[in-house]
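Postdoc handover notes: sequence design on the structure in folder B. Input tokens:
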């Protein structure tokens, strides 16, 4: 069992990374392998709407000067996918949006590669705009026919400077509860697929 997580922040090892790592630590305790990929400093272009992925149906995007094709395969191989983003002007970062648009289009062109995987959104916010960000990521999971576990609150941590979210005790607990629910769901789904 494996969960792959992406941090869409332009700031490596910031608040979003801290929140994601708290979820991953619970998953690991539950015996689930994890991997965190941070998109900071990566140049990920948006979808160019060429629809080549619908013609070739080879699970690949025609844009090959970044790591998106590698990420499609990592997401396909995983049982669970975490997409984390800070809130930028009440939305996810451009890097996370580009990742969603490109991997999402390739996945849909190839028969919904992420169908029935477990998906979780994780969001960092200073003050407001976290809910639209959270909703937009969940919309991606839902149209991908994925399954979303809940937590004890919406998966949002509050903080501005790097490390501030550690002081958001309820936010950190939300991440731990999310990790437990995600592990529970992944194990159930794995058993039912056997
Ligand atoms: C370009 C930019 C836009 C931002 N927009 C918002 C916003 O709309 N609402 C908000 O509460 N915080 C906003 N923030 C603050 C970040 O969401 C916050 O600092 C977050 O904790 C950063 O997470 P990170 O450390 O993972 O990058 C913005 C930050 C940047 C750099």
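Designed sequence:
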């Amino acid at each position: 069992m494996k969960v792959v997580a992406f941090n869409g922040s332009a700031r490596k090892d910031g608040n979003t990374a801290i929140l994601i790592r708290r979820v991953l630590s619970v998953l690991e305790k539950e015996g689930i392998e994890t991997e965190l990929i941070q998109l900071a400093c990566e140049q990920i272009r948006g979808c160019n709407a060429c629809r080549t992925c619908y013609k070739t149906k080879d699970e690949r995007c025609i844009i090959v000067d970044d790591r998106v094709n590698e990420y499609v395969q990592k997401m396909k191989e995983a049982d669970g996918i975490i997409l984390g983003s800070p809130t930028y002007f009440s939305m996810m970062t451009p890097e996370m949006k580009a990742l969603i648009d490109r991997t999402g289009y390739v996945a849909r062109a190839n028969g919904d590669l992420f169908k029935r995987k477990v998906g979780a959104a994780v969001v960092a916010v200073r003050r407001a705009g976290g809910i639209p960000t959270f909703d937009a990521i969940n919309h991606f999971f839902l149209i991908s026919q994925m399954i979303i576990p809940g937590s004890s609150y919406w998966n949002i941590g509050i903080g501005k400077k790097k490390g501030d979210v550690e002081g958001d005790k309820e936010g950190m607990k939300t991440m731990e509860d999310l990790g437990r629910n995600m592990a529970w769901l992944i194990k159930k789904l794995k058993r039912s697929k056997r």
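Context for whoever picks this up: The radius of gyration is 16 Å. Don't rerun without checking with the PI first.
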